[in-house]
Amino acid sequence: MFNNDRWYLFALKLIPSPPIQRSCDCGCRWQDASLANYLKIVKSELDRIDQLLERFGSLLPAPQILPPLLQALGKEDADLKRVADLISFDPALTARLLGFCNSAFFGLSTRIDSVPEAVHQLGFRTVYRIVAGTVGGRLLTPSQRDADNFPGSWWKHAVLTAFAAQFVADDIGAEPGAMFTAGLLHELGRVVLLQAFKGDYARLLEKEPGLTKSEVAEREMNAFGVTHAETGGRLLARWQFDAPIVSGVRFHNDPASASDETEQRFAACVHLSDELALSADPVNGEQVLAQAEPPISMAMLNLSPKNLSRYEGLITENMKFAEAMCQLN
Fold this sequence. Notes:
By secondary structure, the chain is mostly helical. The chain has a domain at 141-326: Hypothetical protein af1432, CATH 1.10.3210. It contains 18 helices and no strands. It is globular, with a radius of gyration of 20 Å. The protein starts with 5 loop residues before the first helix and ends with a helix. The relative contact order is 0.13.
């Protein structure tokens, strides 16, 4: 019944072994489940997400450039020509990249007229930030039709989360570009749910301040039968992003539920970066890191309060860069 369902197999890999007598942070739908019922629950949830994405996922422009660009940049001897060719294939993206590189923000004395020049002058990391920010902005900024329901803080929060994820990645030995991407797209599922359920989901968002992440997920499940994290992860898998990025998005609210230590750490990085971004630029007045309990992701990543202070300083130093990126779209 499940033949050739790539995501189903992927889901079984991501969800730990059938959690008999296990509580889930998104509710208790896994408790006392037999293996047969467990598989039915997984398949049912995936079917709901698939139905949603069939109707509304196609409204979002697939970021086709990012997976191959990440692969090219992930190599130790990244090929400048390959990177330049990938970016240059999209004229509109190239124009935005060069326009930003030549903007007053960078204040370069020599004009940049090509992608290779941009990489040479600014480096792979900065160029990837600009490219990913441009592509991500197409996904996470609203159409005119949906603008009234979109919180204005979403895009800036996504960019700050991406910056924070890259800083954390440097410390834990993760690939910075992949972590930047997961941070940037961690709330992608919210866009799908907002397009699908419009005012109903917007009203749920209005009640979100003060709720825990698990309470938000539980309310999403009760109201819509899916969560934004699951929906975003499924969509990224459809777009052929690598498993760690999908896991980072799928489990960013519950990193301990990822299938293995590598993916748990990836999800924990996104979880912590989300909270760092909220602390640096609160959404609806939410000061996450000011809470008494430190994020669980800190322990999972073996980080200390000194690390957090440094990340907060780096985010502050890069705030103008992040704000400039928010104006790309």
